[in-house]
Design brief:
Blueprint lengths: L1 H15 L8 H4 L4 E2 L4 E6 L4 E3 L3 E2 L6 E5 L3 E5 L2 E2 L6 E4 L3 E4 L8 E7 L2 E21 L4 E5 L4 E10 L3 E8 L2 E3 L6 E4 L4 E4 L8 E8 L6 E18 L2 E3 L6 E10 L3 E6 L12 E8 L3 E8 L8 E8 L4 E9 L6 E8 L2 E10 L5 E8 L7 E6 L2 H4 L3 E10 L6 E10 L2 E2 L6 E4 L18 E6 L16 H16 L1
Parallel strand pairs: 2-11, 12-19, 20-26, 31-35
Antiparallel strand pairs: 1-4, 3-9, 5-6, 5-10, 6-7, 8-9, 10-11, 11-13, 13-17, 14-15, 14-18, 16-17, 18-19, 19-21, 21-24, 22-25, 23-24, 25-26, 27-28, 28-31, 29-30, 29-32, 32-33, 32-34
Pfam families: fn3, I-set, Ig_3
Keywords: Disulfide bond, Immunoglobulin domain, Repeat, Signal
GO biological process, one term: synapse organization
Length: 479
């Protein structure tokens, strides 16, 4: 009672002195005061959050918790929302368990009858990235030439950054194949016209610096008809020989391969003379071999590699011929105005003659055709036939090109590869020829001499060649 009277007298004295009434320290001790401060929290999804609301001198007043804008959670100790993940701790703090994005936002704790006495906490829920392939099985199958779309359904807070990598036939690349375009923030790939090089695995990876990156794989299969490569396309053969061909097929799905004699409807079957072998290299390559042993005359001719799949079929033809194999033409400098051409040809039957074609390199000149006869000694060679010619009358410093063909009992073979040369310089290209086959040197050939510019093989070997050849053989026997 005495303390109250003193307060009344103090106020009266202040009024008489013209001073305003001020709240004394004693009166402030009785008023509620908010001790907690606002917070701005980044919380990873699934974590537990504790929001404080410490109030001094709350006495009989109650705390009211709200999830703005209007959701009331607690009034005092009474749960209004009845949310099983939200709890009141020690009658004051708000606890949220296993938080999810729906709990993001502002939470305010205010004191009843004192709405200005409050504290606000802001929660940002961070969600690690998540990726789901679209379609859900991760498989996209399209025919060659048609458009294709690959997509990833990406979620996360903040919005993840999406990157793609491509893997094809075991080779992984950070860059996408040509013709692939990223759209919709990178979550989708579009291909206007699918091709074989677009096939493979596409990995979609999402990152947002929350938790670990997430990824999904989509596999694009481009269906296409067989595409064939045969090696060799042509093979030299005769009675008793063995030849082999390989047919390589690229297709999706993999193809079934048959070997057939051209013009016949029945596929070749394995036998003691016919050997067949297949090999599948997933996902798109099939190889098929055929080996023909102990050839007979009737085996000569063409053979077809036939490949089929659900998209279509394709064929490639190879040939077994009695013609000589293409000549391996080489050469060496003879003098400033001549050049020695040498060659070796493989043939099961004797080579009767050769045809040489020469002209200035990259010119519009007509080819100079030279028929080169074969001596009796050359006819007696077996399987590998070697020969040479010394071309004279060349212009120093001028480049020439030459091709050669060989004629045996079956006709003219395919032309050799072009040899580029000039007098006084080595040739530009030099096909590899075994050194065990010694060349037989003919007399000099002057391409400016019109007597050599005739077709046919009636010209006989000049006497100087015969003498040189006999001396050569005598020399070998003395060794």
């Amino acid at each position: 009672m005495l303390l109250t009277e003193r307060r009344v007298l103090l106020r009266a004295l202040l009024l008489l002195l013209g001073l305003k009434t001020v709240a004394t320290e004693e009166t402030s001790d009785d008023s509620p005061r908010m001790l907690s401060t606002p917070s701005n929290l980044n919380v990873i999804e699934g974590a537990t959050v504790l929001l404080p609301c410490n109030v001094l001198n709350i006495e009989r007043k109650v705390r009211i918790w709200k999830h703005l804008p209007s959701r009331i959670l607690f009034s005092g100790s009474i749960s209004v929302s009845r949310d099983s993940q939200i709890h009141l701790v020690n009658g004051s703090a708000l606890r949220i368990d296993a938080i999810t994005p729906r709990y993001a936002g502002e939470y305010v704790c205010l004191v009843s009858h004192h709405p200005a006495l409050n504290v606000t906490h802001r929660i940002h829920v961070l969600v690690p990235p998540s990726v789901q392939p679209d379609p859900s099985n991760g498989k996209v199958i399209i025919r060659k030439g048609n458009p294709a779309t690959l997509a990833c359904n990406v979620s996360g807070i903040p919005q993840p950054v999406v990157t793609w990598t491509h893997e094809h036939e075991g080779i992984q690349s950070a860059s996408l194949p040509s013709g692939v375009r990223q759209v919709l923030g990178g979550t989708q790939l579009q291909i206007a016209s699918a091709d074989v090089h677009h096939a493979g695995s596409y990995r979609c990876t999402a990152e947002n610096d929350v938790g670990e990156p997430s990824s999904a794989v989509l596999v694009l299969t481009v269906l296409y008809a067989p595409e064939l490569i045969v090696s060799p396309e042509w093979n030299h053969g005769d009675e008793g020989a063995t030849v082999e061909f390989m047919c390589t097929c690229h297709s999706a799905p993999p193809s079934h391969i048959l070997w057939m004699r051209t013009g016949q409807e029945t596929p070749l079957q394995a036998s003691d003379r016919v050997k067949l072998k297949h090999k599948l290299t997933p996902p798109t390559t099939t190889e098929a071999w055929i080996k023909l042993q102990r050839l007979r005359k009737e085996d000569l001719g063409s053979y077809t590699c036939l490949a089929k799949n659900s998209v279509g079929q394709s064929t490639k033809t190879v040939e077994i011929s009695g013609l000589a194999e293409p000549v391996q033409l080489r050469g060496d400098q003879s003098s400033d105005s001549s050049f020695l051409l040498m060659w070796t040809a493989k043939s099961y039957s004797p080579i009767i003659e050769y045809q040489l074609k020469i002209r200035r390199y990259k010119s519009d000149d007509e080819w100079t055709d030279v028929m080169i006869p074969v001596s009796e000694e050359s006819l007696q060679q077996s399987l590998f036939f070697s020969h040479s010619y010394n071309v004279t009358g060349l212009e120093p410093g001028t480049r020439y090109e030459a091709v050669l063909q060989a004629h045996n009992d079956f006709g003219w073979n395919r032309p050799s590869e072009t040899l580029l040369f000039s007098a006084g310089d080595p040739p530009t290209t030099e096909p590899v020829v075994s050194s065990t086959y010694l060349p037989f040197y003919d007399a000099d050939l002057d391409i400016t001499d019109p007597t050599y510019l005739k077709q046919g093989s009636s010209a006989s070997t000049p006497l100087p060649f015969q003498l040189v050849h006999i001396l050569f053989l005598i020399g070998l026997s003395l060794l």
